[in-house]
């Protein structure tokens, strides 16, 4: 049985758990964070946006690391499943980056009185969004999917090497030009009633992200393997005569795994 | 045509592969010689550089004091865009005429041959841009004390720009309309070089030591020299065989 | 798919090139599957097949450019991936495009290839300085040595590339449609050149629709392909 088929069978068992975990944590975290956590003594209620902003920002960074890890696995060991995961994850990573940018600029209104400020963290986020877009667009630009996969993998690795350098440069540039009074990057010391919901939100985002990536990877698996026997059996597009026998054997294999 | 190969195979099976240095030098001189025979293409990035700088006073204000504060950033951004413009052609012609394929098939290590090509690109664009920059600095009212640092930062930084940009050029050379895509994937990676390059000139204008900036630019160049050729080689292999 | 040796001559040395269970899949479509063949010194292998059957891809695999395939290619008994340096030093590949720079003269173009492949000091009594002149003369370009290649015809540019066959001594020639754009006289000479290479123990792999007048050293391999353009269902076990 091929790796994508094994993955397809296994992921269908993981997904319900992941979804329930994500929903429970996100529900508790957001209600607690938005309604019950105490207001910040300096920023008042506007600080509550960190319950969205911080998890999104963390996910945005983690997702790029995932892309780079998938790139190594795909380029070195030629495991196509890794590339399918990268294909599925990149748009979600870009979305998380956009969410972090949006929540950051919404937070800018009460804090700085303007939608956009060249804060170090927001600027790095913006650059990271461009990196994501580059990877996504480059993949789509090739007529051959295999070529697009390798190009996107190489670019993801190059981006991964550059992200720390970009962050460092932008931080340095930002401190030189405008010592910010508030930044979203350094959270002040928080009481437990503030950070426990934040932790829940972060974990909830991770679970949500994982579930989403798995689902999209499953779609990608089906798309790429659509000509293979196991997918045809799954979708009942094989001649009647053969299907019953094969379906039974596929099921037996599924259970073994 | 003659009927027999000139070289007996018995000798050839000893497989002379020549020296790496000779291969790199030949690649470099080939690119330089070819560029010097098509001088109009050499002028393009320089003319672009000058034109973009001309646009800023027209678009912002001819006020000397204002322009002088903007000058370090403007010159650097214009130089960066001029480099980017020239990058699309770095491998394009070799790709079209089949010599890129041949470059990939030599027994010599590809990253080093590619490095020779990138050095050629820098000699033909980055270095002339750096030499031309003081002229544009004068037009923008940049204090003459900063000219040395401007040239040094551009010379040092543009080599990094060539190296990083060549990664994008290698990845997009097989695509019919790779130009716009090239900017999208390369410009974010240029930001650190821009920050420290323009920073060096700014601190020179302010009378502060600019050596730390130049040192960081040098460090970035060292890292780019080490890693970029590997990524360029991988990109070329993919583009040629994709 | 396997091929019997075309001649009964005994080749005692290990085959120059051996291909085992070579399959290539591009974007979930099999270009070819389970190719097995060997190529010994003195043989010319002609790869035939309709457009899109993977001829060029097979040449790229055989010339070590493309390694995204299943199965193994052996060079003198060793996997190409492990004997890459030795393999590339014994290989001369001419692709679809001649690899000639229009702005440079024929001699300058050859000089770059000489530097890449290593200059042979003395070549059958010709030193490395005179060798390119002799090679250009051999492909009928005497008198065009110092003319920029862009002023030459497409056929003449291809001849510059073919001059490398005279200039760079390599055991294995991999040629993608070498007869393209060559005139009748040139075709006959090239055919003789290929046969002479084989006679001296060299090997040639090429794609061409050209019919050799002397097929004694020739072996053919037919890539079937799916001419009707249908995507065959892939077998799960081999995926």
Key structural traits:
heterotrimer; A: 257 residues; mainly alpha; 2 domains; C: 239 residues; Rossmann fold; five-stranded parallel beta sheet; 6 helices; 11 strands; 24% strand; disordered N terminus; disordered C terminus; ATP hydrolysis activity (chain C); nucleotide-binding (chain C); transmembrane transporter activity (chain C); cytochrome c-type biogenesis (chain C)
Q: Topology, pairings included?
A:
The complex is a heterotrimer of chains A (257), B (242) and C (239).
Chain A: H1 3-36, H2 50-77, H3 80-112, H4 120-141, H5 145-177, H6 192-224, H7 229-234, H8 240-256
Helix pairs in contact in A: 1-6, 2-3, 2-5, 2-6, 3-4, 3-6, 4-5
Chain B: H1 9-12, H2 20-37, H3 39-59, H4 64-87, H5 89-97, H6 99-104, H7 110-139, H8 147-172, H9 178-205, H10 211-241
Helix pairs in contact in B: 2-7, 3-4, 3-7, 4-7, 4-8, 4-9, 7-8, 7-10, 8-9, 8-10, 9-10
Chain C: E1 17-26, E2 29-39, E3 44-48, H1 55-62, E4 70-75, E5 78-79, H2 84-89, E6 91-94, H3 106-117, E7 122-123, E8 126-127, H4 131-138, H5 154-167, E9 172-176, H6 184-199, E10 203-207, E11 218-222
Parallel strand pairs in C: 3-10, 3-11, 6-9, 9-10
Antiparallel strand pairs in C: 1-2, 1-4, 4-5, 7-8
Helix pairs in contact in C: 3-5, 4-5
Account of the 3D structure:
The complex is a heterotrimer of chains A (257), B (242) and C (239). Chain A has 257 residues and is mainly alpha-helical. Chain A has 2 domains: 223 residues, no CATH class; 32 residues, no CATH class. Chain A is 80% helix and 0% strand. Chain B is built from 10 helices and no strands. The longest helix of chain B has 31 residues. Chain B is elongated, with a radius of gyration of 20 Å. Chain B starts with 8 loop residues before the first helix and ends with a helix. With 239 residues, chain C is α/β, with parallel strands linked by helices. Chain C has 2 domains: 141 residues, P-loop containing nucleotide triphosphate hydrolases (Rossmann fold); 72 residues, no CATH class. Helices cover 27% and strands 24% of the residues of chain C. Chain C contains 6 helices and 11 strands. In chain C, a hairpin with a 2-residue loop joins strand 7 and strand 8. The N terminus and C terminus of chain C are likely disordered. Chains in contact: A-B, A-C, B-C. Chain C: Pfam families: ABC_tran. Chain C: One of its GO terms (molecular function) is transmembrane transporter activity. Chain C: It comes from Cobetia crustatorum. Chain C: Keywords: ATP-binding, Cytochrome c-type biogenesis, Membrane, Nucleotide-binding, Translocase, Transport. Chain C: This is Cytochrome c biogenesis heme-transporting ATPase CcmA.
């Amino acid at each position: 049985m091929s790796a994508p088929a094994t993955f397809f069978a296994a992921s269908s068992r993981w997904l319900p758990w992941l979804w329930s975990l994500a929903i429970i944590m996100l529900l508790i975290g957001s209600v607690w964070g938005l309604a019950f956590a105490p207001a910040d003594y300096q920023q008042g209620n506007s600080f509550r946006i960190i319950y969205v902003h911080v998890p999104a920002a963390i996910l945005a960074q983690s997702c790029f690391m995932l892309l780079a890890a998938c790139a190594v696995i795909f380029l070195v060991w030629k495991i196509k499943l890794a590339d399918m995961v990268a294909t599925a994850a990149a748009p979600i990573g870009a979305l998380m980056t956009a969410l972090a940018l949006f929540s950051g600029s919404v937070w800018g209104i009460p804090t700085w009185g303007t939608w956009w400020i060249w804060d170090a963290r927001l600027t790095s986020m913006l650059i990271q969004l461009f990196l994501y877009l580059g990877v996504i667009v480059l993949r789509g630009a090739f007529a051959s999917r295999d070529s697009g996969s390798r190009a996107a993998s190489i670019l993801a690795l190059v981006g991964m090497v550059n992200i720390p350098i970009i962050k460092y440069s932008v931080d340095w540039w930002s401190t030189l030009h405008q010592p910010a009074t508030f930044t979203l990057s350094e959270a002040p010391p928080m009481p437990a009633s503030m950070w426990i919901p934040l932790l829940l939100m972060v974990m909830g985002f991770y679970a949500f992200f994982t579930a989403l990536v798995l689902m999209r990877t499953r779609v990608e698996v089906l798309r790429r393997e659509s000509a293979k026997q196991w997918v045809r059996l799954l979708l009942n597009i094989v001649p009647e005569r053969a299907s019953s026998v094969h379906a039974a054997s596929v099921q037996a294999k599924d259970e073994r795994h | 045509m003659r009927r027999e190969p000139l070289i007996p195979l018995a000798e050839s099976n000893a497989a002379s592969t020549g020296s790496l240095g000779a291969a790199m030098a030949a690649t470099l001189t080939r690119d330089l010689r070819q560029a010097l025979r098509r001088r109009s293409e050499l002028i393009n990035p320089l003319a672009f550089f000058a034109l973009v700088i001309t646009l800023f006073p027209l678009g912002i204000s001819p006020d000397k004091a204002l322009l002088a504060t903007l000058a370090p950033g403007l010159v650097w951004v214009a130089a960066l865009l001029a480099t980017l413009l020239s990058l699309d052609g770095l491998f394009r012609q070799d790709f079209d005429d089949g010599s890129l394929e041949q470059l990939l098939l030599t027994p010599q290590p590809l990253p080093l041959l590619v490095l020779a090509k990138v050095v050629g690109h820098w000699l033909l664009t980055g270095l002339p841009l750096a030499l031309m920059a003081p002229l544009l600095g004068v037009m923008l009212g940049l204090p003459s004390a900063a000219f040395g640092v401007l040239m040094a930062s551009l010379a040092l930084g543009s080599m990094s720009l060539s190296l990083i940009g060549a990664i994008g050029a290698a990845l997009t050379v097989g695509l019919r309309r790779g130009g716009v895509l090239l900017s999208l994937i390369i410009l974010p990676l240029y930001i650190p070089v821009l920050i420290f390059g323009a920073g060096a000139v700014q601190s020179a204008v302010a009378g502060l030591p600019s050596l730390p900036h130049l040192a960081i630019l040098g460090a970035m160049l060292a890292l780019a020299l080490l890693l970029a050729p590997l990524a360029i080689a991988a990109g070329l292999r993919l583009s040629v065989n994709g | 798919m396997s091929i019997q040796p075309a001649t009964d001559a005994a080749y005692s040395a290990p085959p120059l090139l051996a291909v085992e269970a070579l399959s290539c899949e591009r974007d979930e479509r099999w270009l070819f599957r389970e190719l097995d063949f060997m190529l010994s010194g003195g043989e010319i292998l002609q790869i035939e097949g309709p457009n899109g059957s993977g001829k060029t891809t097979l040449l790229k695999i055989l010339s070590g450019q493309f390694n995204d395939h299943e199965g193994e290619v052996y060079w003198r008994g060793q996997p190409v991936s492990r004997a890459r340096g030795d393999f590339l030093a014994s290989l001369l590949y001419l692709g679809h495009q001649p690899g000639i720079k229009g702005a440079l003269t024929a001699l300058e173009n050859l000089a770059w290839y000489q530097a890449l492949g290593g200059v042979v000091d003395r070549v059958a009594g010709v030193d490395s300085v005179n060798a390119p002149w002799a090679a250009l003369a051999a492909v009928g370009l005497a008198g065009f040595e110092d003319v920029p290649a862009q002023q030459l015809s497409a056929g003449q540019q291809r001849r510059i590339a073919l001059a490398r066959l005279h200039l760079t001594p390599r055991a294995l020639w991999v040629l993608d449609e070498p007869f393209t754009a060559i005139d009748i006289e040139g075709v006959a000479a090239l055919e003789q050149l290929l046969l002479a290479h084989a006679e001296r123990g060299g090997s040639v792999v090429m794609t061409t629709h050209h019919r050799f007048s002397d097929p004694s050293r020739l072996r053919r391999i037919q890539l079937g392909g799916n001419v009707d353009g249908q995507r065959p269902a892939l077998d799960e076990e081999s995926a």
